[in-house]
Write a structure and sequence with these properties.
The protein is of the alpha/beta class. It has nine helices and seven strands. Helix 1 packs across helix 9 and helix 6 packs across helix 7. The two termini are about 15 Å apart. The chain binds BIS(adenosine)-5'-pentaphosphate (AP5).
Length: about 220
């Protein structure tokens, strides 16, 4: 079977990570999140992690060349042979071009691009209430709370808030998204790959719409 690549598009806090994990699990694909990959580098104190941190904390994008190299390396691993759910990549036209060139080498292409739409005012509320586990699980204080406050359901470790989820940084991330990433909406619409999904619905309803989009692609 041809590998299946799904690109999750949407502003910071739209629910890309929450939904990408569910899709990857249901479809037996790998979840590739560039934000998670950078945070992993940061945790391991690599040179790339330090470089990425200086951009992430300001809400800026990490330069294309290093981001593209990291994704090429990740998608070339054998666990991605069946495809991947891409979360947070591509984020610029140059990254979209690099992805297309890479997938061509694999004799594949992007199958569908779900665009999770959420208005700006909801995004700040979502990100200021987001609690993360060190292994990347995502909760929300009100919308998706853990069983015990500030404790991960699965491994019992303490939850934390991301440095870049401060309201002023979130607002800058939304500006950066509007300037640099939103042009990809038209790019993928013109290719006939874009499917708009209402991200203001409950998490389970968004998942249902996304699964439908994938099945109909
Ligand atoms: P990254 O980690 O990718 O952040 P992001 O794209 O800004 O997205 P988020 O993780 O903030 O939000 P999300 O859409 O995944 O929402 P989530 O599911 O968590 O990137 C961070 C940084 O890394 C960037 O700023 C940049 O510096 C760098 N970077 C990453 N990729 C890069 C690239 N390609 N190029 C250059 N630089 C790059 O949900 C948010 C909250 O809402 C959670 O609390 C969740 O529980 C809740 N929630 C989710 N869905 C719902 C719902 N339906 N209803 C109610 N609450 C919900």
């Amino acid at each position: 079977m041809a590998p299946l690549y799904i690109v999750m598009l949407g502003p910071p806090g739209a629910g890309k990570g929450t939904q990408a994990k569910k899709l990857a699990q249901t479809l037996d694909l790998v979840h590739v999140s560039t934000g998670d990959l950078f945070r992993e580098h940061l945790k391991n104190e690599t040179e790339l992690g330090q470089l990425a941190q200086s951009y992430m904390n300001k809400g800026e994008l990490v330069p294309d060349d290093v981001t593209i190299k990291m994704v090429e390396e990740r998608l070339s691993r054998t666990d991605c042979e069946k495809g991947a759910v891409l979360d947070g990549f591509p984020r610029t036209p140059a990254q979209a071009e690099a992805l297309e060139a890479l997938l061509e080498k694999f004799d594949a292409g992007v199958k569908v691009v779900p665009y999770i739409k959420v208005p700006d005012e909801v995004l700040v509320e979502r990100l200021s209430g987001r609690w993360m586990s060190t292994s990347g699980r995502v909760y929300h204080a009100q919308h998706n709370p853990p069983k015990v406050k500030w404790i991960d359901d699965l491994d019992g470790s303490p939850l934390y808030q991301r440095e870049d989820d401060k309201p002023e940084t979130v607002r800058h991330r939304i500006e950066v998204y509007t300037e640099q990433t939103a042009p990809l909406i038209d790019h993928y619409r013109q290719k006939g790959l874009l499917v708009e999904v209402d991200g203001t619905q409950a998490i389970e309803a968004v998942t249902e719409d996304l699964m439908k989009a994938v099945e109909e692609a």
